[in-house]
Amino acid sequence: MKPIPVNPDRLLAELAELRRFGAQGKGVARMAFSEPDLASRALLAERMRDAGLEVTVDACGNLFGIPPGVGPCLLIGSHSDTQPLGGWLDGIYGVLCGLEVARASLESGGPRVAVVSFQDEEGRFGGLTGSAVWAGVMPLAEADALHDAEGARFADARCTVGRIAPVAEVPAGRFSAYLEAHIEQGPVLDQSNEAIGVVEAIVGMRGFTLRFVGQANHAGTTPMHLRRDALRAAAQFIRDLEEAFAPHVTEKTVWTHGHLAVEPNAASIVPGKASLSVQMRDPDSDRLETLMAIALELAETIARDRELALEIEQGPRFEPVPMSQALVAAITAAAETHAAGAWRRMPSGALHDASNVAQVLPVGMMFVPSIGGISHNPDEDTAPEHLVRGLVTLADAAGRLAS
Amino acid sequence: MKPIPVNPDRLLAELAELRRFGAQGKGVARMAFSEPDLASRALLAERMRDAGLEVTVDACGNLFGIPPGVGPCLLIGSHSDTQPLGGWLDGIYGVLCGLEVARASLESGGPRVAVVSFQDEEGRFGGLTGSAVWAGVMPLAEADALHDAEGARFADARCTVGRIAPVAEVPAGRFSAYLEAHIEQGPVLDQSNEAIGVVEAIVGMRGFTLRFVGQANHAGTTPMHLRRDALRAAAQFIRDLEEAFAPHVTEKTVWTHGHLAVEPNAASIVPGKASLSVQMRDPDSDRLETLMAIALELAETIARDRELALEIEQGPRFEPVPMSQALVAAITAAAETHAAGAWRRMPSGALHDASNVAQVLPVGMMFVPSIGGISHNPDEDTAPEHLVRGLVTLADAAGRLAS
């Protein structure tokens, strides 16, 4: 296997160039189908053409650069849209790594490598919308009915795709596998001084909302034993769940109560209602079911003991997505070569386009560190050395897979 | 001692009459110095004059009806303003009881009894404003600077007092003691099927806000051991405080977390900040200090253990107000006469005008039941039988005091 001779300076220069599209201070505002997003996709299309790739955009705005030749080839990429005000690396790092690997391989007569930027990963309309439609997870008609916070419809927004490149559908059959490099968006690699994360699985998620309903009362005139205090119930649930989960979780399990709404929420009134979000993530589907059952039983016990009503509203539910063993092996070998002793296998706690693409192709994912674990924030950053090490490792893995 | 021969039918008729001022459905909207408040005070002034009382309003809008004769006399009353949308009995019950006792006593050649309706008890501007100024607890200049939610100033609102009655100051020296009847606004009498509550003390209060400050993070990518979750700290505080307080509280102690604000309060983000109200009420000042110290120590321990910053903002602080022993004895004797076996001594968990008046006069308070403990709500109600039993008991106590 001959290594693909990537040029790190081109990656760093193009990252800086793309940062200007939608720049706001240190951050980037480049939501799907905004003017900066369309302009940046047009520039990406131009760079792909300059590299000798055949450029196509599909009806959803997913932008592909495919090398000449026949037969399925490796696809590398991510997304180039951002959060309403996001960081300068989230998504675009994986797209530009894909572009550099594809270009360097073409230049050096290496294996055929294609590149993609999926659309609306960050959820102006739905979240992972472009890859969901492309992988057949969501019908286009369903995506078309999505709308953003201001009411603009995905169906109307995507009429602009012709401004980016020639429009055509790009069947999954043109590719053999999908590789995605991404910033970690968490603190694990940064805290452990490691350079590469080899993703074993994108974790699954179970979410629901608990609503404890008691009785709002005067905080001075209602004796403790006559209260039906919804916030006390929610607090007990949060606290006791830590103990109830302890025997069942691993270091890869996380659970979060990110949202709590109290009614009437006044210092002198005993809370009558408390709505609490519960979100659990784990790479193991069975464990998620176990945790869900424990949480619901605890909530019911607390509501019964405190004479409260309990309402449960189901929320998001995603199954874990294991990465392809062949791709994990290739990234592992590359990491051992370029970051010996400074890499780890880990789950992805966040969802990525790879979650959808896994429905139609073998997928692999690789992380580089996020300084302080910060992401979805203008302060998001990664050391240049780590950006480069990621590119070199990805190119090595691509060489192993595509040869 | 000759009983004061009150006429319950006049009380019930006047309660129904006053209910029409500011009526909204079953409730009443009669905030201080609103048109319905001014009109109802003008009617009260007319009824006082018809009863043979000398009518005066002071600069704050406190309305007095004083019998002819010399020397200090007993004062009975409460307030006739309401919450933005309150019930039909809160305050006005005590004023009309005072009017009926004063009138019946004059008619029957009984002891001299005066009546008062204090202004802005319910806090359109400040809360207990009229009685605070009258009792010298708050300088008039300070009250004048208060403004309502729309920015209207107390100083401007009180320019209307001349529409109610002749304006003059009414020194506390004109009275020997103050008696206030009020609906309980809590569930204790209703649940125990008792008719009369003899108030021993208006409880004291300590309030403060705890603000736990950690780090907002992605709920998928941040491992549990690297989180600094502000909501988990607040939940632990609420839960552990129950245990920490248990050895120190009595059945008269209450404590409430009525307000909790989480930031950023999104299901997929580990909470970075949580602000929690803590409010404790007890008739014993020393106990309040003990509880305050326990709460602060617990909060500091939790913040330290979880590596969070802790900010503490002091809130309202009221000392307990004991009732006069002589007035408690008179109300007790009257309750034993008119509600034998169906009365209890109890604290007042809510503040009342009596809290302020206690600074200048011996004070006593008496409760009648609130159905379901409901108050500050259009559903507030009390059985007619209990309204009447309260009047008769109050008149009996007044006779014992004024003779």
From TrEMBL, chains A, B:
Q: Quick check: keyword Transferase in the entry?
A: no
The record's listing under SUPFAM superfamilies reads: Bacterial exopeptidase dimerisation domain, Zn-dependent exopeptidases
Q: Which UniProt keywords apply?
A: Hydrolase, Manganese, Metal-binding, Zinc
Q: Which cofactor does it need?
A: Zn(2+); Mn(2+)
GO MF terms held by the record:
hydrolase activity, acting on carbon-nitrogen (but not peptide) bonds, in linear amidines; metal ion binding
Domain Peptidase M20 dimerisation spans what residues?
A: 204-304
Residues annotated as binding Zn(2+) 1 are: H79, D90, H182
Subunit description:
Homodimer.
- Protein name per Swiss-Prot or TrEMBL: Zn-dependent hydrolase
